[in-house]
Amino acid sequence: MHIVRSENRRAALAYDCISHGTLSPLLIGNLSSNLWSRPRRFVLCTLTSIICMYDIEYDCMKNTCEQRLKNMASFKKTNTKLFLKATPDLTIDNFFWKNHNASVVVKEFGPIDYIDFSPIEPYHFAVTCSCRIQIYNPITKLVTKNLNKFKEHAYGGTFRKDGRLICAGGKEHNVKLFDVATKSPLRIFNVHSAPVHRTFFTIDGTHIISFSDDKTTSLLDIPSEKKVVCFKEHNDYVRAGSVSPISSDIYISGGYDKIVNMYDTRTNKKVLSVNHDAPIESVIFLPSGGVFLSAGGTEIRVWDCFANGRLLAKISQHHKTITCLQIACNGRRILSGSLDKHVRIYDSGTYKTLHTFDYPNEILSIGISADDETLVTGMTNGMISIKQQDTKGKFVDYNKISFQYACDNLHLPNIDTHVHESAKEVMGKHDACLRKFQYSKALDHVMINYIVNKCPHITVALFQELVRRQGIVQALSGRDGKFLINILKFIIRNIGNIRFGRVLLEIANILMEIYDDKLEELNLEVQLTFRLLARKLEEEEDLIKYLTELQGTLEMILSSSETTIINTRSDDLTPSATAQKNLILNI
């Protein structure tokens, strides 16, 4: 009995080797020649395994060949999917934003008023809350600098483009400028009579724009520590502002009087004004500088600067007040935070919602790094949520007990295998006619009202198939006036569609070649329809010319926005006399 078990084990091993191709036909011949040698049972079992294996392979090959012959003999239906309207279910944004799952929550003192990222790597971010500005390292999530030279609440701390300076307002009615490295105040501007809620550097880095509750906005010169110009164009608190990304002379302000004003410091005048119809909490420019957004109430509005403040779009995806706006992905994405505890991400081209983040508390501020890897959200209860992209792959521990019997070259598939049941395909009437080479009848079936109005892609797909088969002339020849009117109206209605235009233009040319000599013999209604087609083609030609001119104009605008500001002034600043009173020395 022990010998039988051993021989059975050998036979199984031999079968395994043969199935993996490690036993050659020469070995099989040796096995058959030594059939009567010892141990006979092992040889018999091995030969039986070989026969079974090749029998199974023969059946598989037979089934495969039969299936291939069946597919070769079967009729290929008209491919209508080529002209279907594109409806992508999943985009790269779904995977990109869902990958921000490495979340860390930090507790601060008081509501988080403002969050701003340094433009320089490693992209530290400044959190303005209570009576301080704290600078965090996004990698360690720890505080690296603490700017606490405020007697009352601080507001709106922002970095300069080189990451070396920070400006901030506060309840003390002044604007302070800090050196990030030494934490020392370099300038203190006492130019307002009420709290200053927002401050921003101009793109040349030598001026600061401040927005205050005294209903004014001021342009401040850093080297001289003086006010350059002050605008008094609002009738209520000014709590929002933004600086143009392409010009150091243009900026906008938004107030609780529902008005957004644009200023030009070269003329010291207001150049544009739009009404948002709600108290404004945040405004921001797109990177092109020609479009800005305003947020107030439950609505975001998009305005065109070059068209005298024309309203481009309204975005209403929140059901409570929108408190903050940010730009991500080099201007291709817009982020908005609201008191409804949601952060929504929009496409800046279509203004459609791409993704939504949910938070446990009301949101006051959001910030995102220049590389889009770190998203920080500040809430009303003092919580800071730091989300980072999960760049680490999933680690598989092969030392676990479940892998103890696995071989070295074990491959684990990442995707489950789904076996779909084969269903009987129903052939359309037009495909049945094509199979019998009845091209005219096939065209009649796709020109019925339901298919023409509801499924025009089927009609266009048949047109393309008839052109490929060189049967389109046969299908269109000898038609009566009613059919010609229907097909001409179909072409006029759909030739402007980018999915159908190429095919329908070819069909229109073929129709003209067939009926050019017989046009006078047709009835008056058909002739008028042909003239409508000619007029439609002229309109499409004019539209293409107009779009080409528009493309050139847009390229000029985009190229002009790629300007570099040359700073001729020195970046080394020494604390002024006012700032030296609050000087901090690191010992």
Automatic annotation (TrEMBL):
It holds the Pfam family WD40. WD repeats lie at residues 315-356. One of its GO terms (biological process) is rRNA processing. It is found in: Nucleus, Nucleolus. Keywords: Nucleus, Repeat, rRNA processing, WD repeat. Ribosome biogenesis factor. Involved in nucleolar processing of pre-18S ribosomal RNA. Required for optimal pre-ribosomal RNA transcription by RNA polymerase I. Part of the small subunit (SSU) processome, first precursor of the small eukaryotic ribosomal subunit. During the assembly of the SSU processome in the nucleolus, many ribosome biogenesis factors, an RNA chaperone and ribosomal proteins associate with the nascent pre-rRNA and work in concert to generate RNA folding, modifications, rearrangements and cleavage as well as targeted degradation of pre-ribosomal RNA by the RNA exosome. This is U3 small nucleolar RNA-associated protein 15 homolog. It comes from Nasonia vitripennis.
